[in-house]
Design goal:
This protein has helices at residues 12-29, 38-47; strands at 5-6, 51-52, 57-58, 70-72, 77-78, 83-84, 89-91, 96-97, 102-103, 106-108, 117-119, 122-124, 129-130, 135-136, 141-142, 147-148, 153-154, 162-165, 170-174. The chain is α/β, with parallel strands linked by helices and 180 residues long. A hairpin with a 4-residue loop joins strand 18 (162-165) and strand 19.
Length: 180
Amino acid sequence: MKVIKYIDGVSVKVKIMQKIWCFVSFFLFKPFVFNVFNPWRIFILRIFGAKIDKGSIVYSSVFIPAPWNLVMGKLSCLGPNVSLHIDKTIIGNKVTVSQGTYLCNGSHDITKLNKPFISAPIVLNDFSWIAAECFVAPGIVIGEGAVVGARAAVFKNVDSWTIVGGNPAKFIKKRTIKDS
């Protein structure tokens, strides 16, 4: 069951933090495009509250509006031009989020006339792979070892060790790992 939060407004403290982060990101995060600067980018994200474990990679083109809401396990990767939204994004160990993916954990409640902003965390469990240019909706949990095919739109939780694809994403087959 998704835990959706209604956001009436953003606190002054959060607005100030977002402005500071925007400035720091522009001058100290985005310009360092080569992977040799990945430790620097991780350092900057950690200063702003991100919890990122050893060996993880965050490309300079990733859009992170609130680094304090990012949790990444070991050896995970946020690829080029990935976009996060403002609520919690929890990424397990050895997870790959490929280029152009949008992890959108915010939306609007269309059952109300004033369409208030709502949000819910996104969880990507260990060994999962979100392929290129996917959309993941608020409150979604991607199971351990699951694969979301390129350009899929995920509106329902994805079971562990399955492969899904399409818009909306549908079960394709079970994922089996072969020894090499």
